[in-house]
């Protein structure tokens, strides 16, 4: 089976560092700027390293991530001059205190050669509501904690950390202590919703430094959108060659991870907030999904039945592989507003024409389908996702590749309408997905025409058995009296 | 990563899937085939009872095959894409 394995031609996995030993004075960071954009479930961190080579012929640069930071990171990408050099499944060598990420430089740097490296990461489950309970009309306040200093195996001449909140009102932020030796001006400044820690000069984050000076800083800020986590997401993609159709169905369990509701839910309060258009920030009343163009037969139901409070605006279908100019927009309103700590489970599904997703290689008779891993709900994290791709009955020679490493994959048999032996299905499981994880899974398979005709044959056999029964029944005499 | 990118590029460059029977024709095909099956079944019921049931078998087989295709087309046009 085609599995994606990380051997970029330029990528070199560094040897396992037994402890946080300095990687040698091969590089020097002239500046590190870490920008943290605070969100609800998702926090976007972008770190720019201005690198100077101290020794000739350097081809590998190492970035360090502390264990706590690595645990929170669900996606990362490293770019040199806007060209991607490392993506989310890069192998990180674990050390004692941190993880080391090896980046291969596009070309070897000469002595005193400089380079700008940008590491972008998406952190999930990094914020928590504080206070943990809020009444219906109270604001939503979240707390985010991070380490003060950005660690690196090399000496840093100057580094700063900027924490940005969307809303300008930051309730509080910690002032670092014991940093006078690195600071020339103030150790922390605030300007509106942006808090800048630094600049800190001449930092060398070895084990002693980390033990003595590394500290945790936290920002307490207001967030004006509901903090939603999708606890589990089950996506099923069923391919039908007879109907020329790809059906995608998502079963999601939403959870509002904001502050839990204090007191009872007042419908009156909710309606009056709606009327005054000043809805409390932690209430989820509706959300929008962007579905692929050419969507038909969309449905939205939950445990009680069909949910009619939805609106779909379809976009015309585009050819396979071409970039969609316009997406179909599905606005969903759950059956009830989801307040802090509440859950909502629903199922949505839609059909798309098969020619938009499946390609055919006539030379080998191989079909290939591209199914997106998920349709993101804006600003949410999916804790556990399972994607099941059901291939037509009689599919053989199944190969698959996932855009980023999955937790597990398996093959099974799925039995559906008019099946005789069942359909092969490929299942992938993932954790902590964000809007950055929406690429396609590609599965290739072969189906002979005889497999399709098997369905017709089974129905024909059923009809023929009825005719055979009629044939025999006509010859049975059920008269009571002899004629 | 380049393995994935190569597969993605291959998928985008290959011609799209085209079904044996266009999906828009399926409702009409279902109607015609199932109507034929019904007519043939009626005809089957009027056939004389021969010792060697050649004609009955032929009509029954034809009706079954048409019925098989008709039911598959019916399922697809009803939204149950089999």
Overview of the structural elements:
The complex is a heterodimer of chains A (483) and B (82). Chain A is mainly β. Chain A has two domains: 10-222, Immunoglobulin-like; 228-456, Immunoglobulin-like (Sandwich), CATH 2.60.40. Chain A is 10% helix and 47% strand. Chain A contains four helices and 32 strands. Chain A has an eight-stranded mixed beta sheet. The longest helix of chain A is centred in the C-terminal third of the chain and has 26 residues, at 449-474. The model of chain A is unreliable at 1-22 (pLDDT under 50). Chain B has 82 residues and is mainly α. At the A-B interface, strand 26, strand 27 and helix 4 of A face helix 1, helix 2 and helix 3 of B.
Rg of chain A computed from alpha carbons, rounded to a whole number of angstroms: 29 Å
Structural class of chain B: mainly alpha
| Low-pLDDT regions of chain A | 1-22
Count every beta strand of chain B, where a strand is a DSSP E run of 2 or more residues. 0
Q: Give the termini distance of chain A in whole angstroms.
A: 72 Å
Find the structural class of chain A using helix and strand composition. Answer: mainly beta
Average of per-residue pLDDT values of chain A: 88
**Biggest interface found:** A-B, 56 and 45 residues
| Number of contiguous helices of chain A | 4
From the spread of the alpha carbons, the general shape of chain B counts as elongated
Proportion of residues in β-strands of chain B: under 5%
